[in-house]
Amino acid sequence: MARKRGLDRADVLAAALTIVDDEGLDALSLTAVAAALDVQPPSLYSHVDGLHGLLDSLAVDVTAEFGETLRDSVIGISGDDAVVAFAHAYRNWATRNPGRYELSLRRIDPDEKRIAGRGAIQTMDRVLAAYGLSKGEATSAGRSLRAALHGFATLEAADSLGRGSNDESFDYMVRLFIDGVRANASTPTA
Fold it and tell me: Which of 37, 50, 83, 138 has the most CB atoms lying inside 10 A of its own CB?
C-alpha cells in the first residue's frame, strides 16, 4: 500500500464509480474503494466523510450527469419529438447505468439535490413548454412523466414487464403521455 501521495477527492470518486458501474451499488464500500486505490481505508477520510459522505457526493455527481444527458438529448428539437427523445434518453441512461441511476434517486441535502438536478428539471420544463401548460399543469405533467419513466425503467431492470415487446410498450406509454398532455392542457396546442 504505497500510493498515498497524489491521491485526491476526484480519484476517490472515480474509483467508487468504477465499482458501482462494474459491480453494482451494493458492492461499494470504503474498503473496496481503498483496495482499488491501493491505500488503507482511513486515508479516504481526508477526501470523503465516510461511506455516507461518499454516497452523497456520488449522488450529486451522477444526478448532474443524468441531467446533462437529458439536456443533450433534446438539443435542436421540440414538441412531441423532444418528449420522445427525452423519454428514450431517460430509459437508456437508467438501463445502461443501473448503479448510477440508483444513486441519482438517493436522498441528499435538498439544496444540493436542487442544484444537481437543475439540468433535468430545466430540460423537462423546456420540453413541456411547447404544450402551453399552466405552471401547475407543467408541474403535474413533469411529475407524471418522471413517474412513468422511472416505473418503466425499474420494472424493465427487474425483468418484470411481462409479455410483449418492451420497446413497443415503452413507445405506447410515451404516446399516451403526449396525447394526455395535449388533451388536458388548458391552452390547446396545434
Answer: 83
CA distances from 47 to 2, 4, 44, 68, 116 (A): 17, 12, 5, 25, 20
Residue-wise pLDDT tens digits, 140-159: 999 999 999 999 999 999 99
The confidence band for 163, taking pLDDT boundaries of 50, 70 and 90, is: confident
Say if 190 falls within a structural domain.
Answer: no
Burial of 190 (0-12, 13-18, 19+ CB in 10 A): exposed
72 and 122 assigned to the same domain = yes
Contacts 24+ apart (CB under 8 A), 172-177: 173/148, 174/83, 174/84, 174/87, 177/83, 177/87, 177/144, 177/145, 177/148
Domain limits for position 68: 62-184
